Amino acid sequence: MRYCVLINGNSIKVRQYASESDYSAEVEQTFEKFKQGAVKNYAVKFRSEAEMNHVEAQILDAVVRLYPDIFGHLDQYCEEHRDYVDEKIGAFDREIQFYLSYLEFIAVFKRAGLNFCYPRMSEDHKEIYNYDGFDLALANKLRLENAMVVCNDFFLNGQERIFIITGPNQGGKTTFARAFGQIHYLASLGCPVPGRDAQLFLFDRLFTHFEQEENLANLRGKLQDDLVRMREILKQATPNSIIIMNEVFTSTALKDAIFLIRKVMEQIMQLDALCACVTFLDELASLSETTVSMVSTIVPENPALRTYKVIRKHADGLAYAISIAEKYRLTYDALKERIVS
């Protein structure tokens, strides 16, 4: 099948081939006698990619109109053999692309010295651990900024099921909770996970409750929205689920927040589900033998600086808010000085 493409400025026309001469060969022959050694090559190199740009697509549409019978037979052939690919082979073809892309993605982090491992998985035992794990999404952002990635460890032994994560703001608490969820989710897909060694639980469903913008369409306040979302999670969760919560019930009074989160934690403990809970309520850290206190730490010499290390220790109730206020000159004395000036 041959055709001609006529280009005139920004206009392109396509018509059937009419045995025209190849003028490019004639032009080369005519100017051959003027050639004086090596010269710059102005020949256009065609792309080798399979995808077409919009101009090529329109040219193809015009060719289809020129040869409707040929393309009609081609359409009929495709329709008759549309199911020729075995379903399992088709699924493998789609899924292997994800796994190969993931391995290519994490290779960048490995070259930077970060660890990945294939975890041991269990559907029965909830004694889990991960050493030198990290939030993969944050690590990718930090890599692009040439910043250091801080790794953390976690483990649960015996009857321990729930991480209660407390500590100063901007200290890595939410990042730790995200990493906990990411690592389990990636493991459930059969992927190597961030960390040098890991043993994880093969969950049935992973539920998350992170803060989100209020939806003006449903006319619910933030507290009611938190309650509705938590109710749906607890209705669907099973003993084999993982639940991740990030600072729920922050919009209500302290006494009410403690009452509500205790009720939620009691149900999670009854389920015997794994959970990571970021909270400003230190009281939860010693709720029962199933809870483990994790605390984000600061640089002792300068409480305004965060280490982003989250370690197992008793909640100390220190938010170091005064150091943040001093850093941004928001203390009473600083504000008074600025107002006067």
UniProtKB/TrEMBL annotation:
GO terms for cellular component: cytosol. The keyword Nucleotide-binding applies. One of its GO terms (molecular function) is mismatched DNA binding. Gene3D superfamilies: P-loop containing nucleotide triphosphate hydrolases. Coiled coil: none annotated. One of its GO terms (biological process) is mismatch repair. Residues 160-341 form the DNA mismatch repair proteins mutS family domain. The keyword Nucleotide-binding applies. Pfam families: MutS_V. Keywords: ATP-binding, DNA-binding, Nucleotide-binding. PANTHER family: DNA MISMATCH REPAIR PROTEIN MSH1, MITOCHONDRIAL, DNA MISMATCH REPAIR PROTEIN MUTS FAMILY MEMBER. This is DNA mismatch repair protein MutS domain protein. It comes from Candidatus Moduliflexus flocculans.
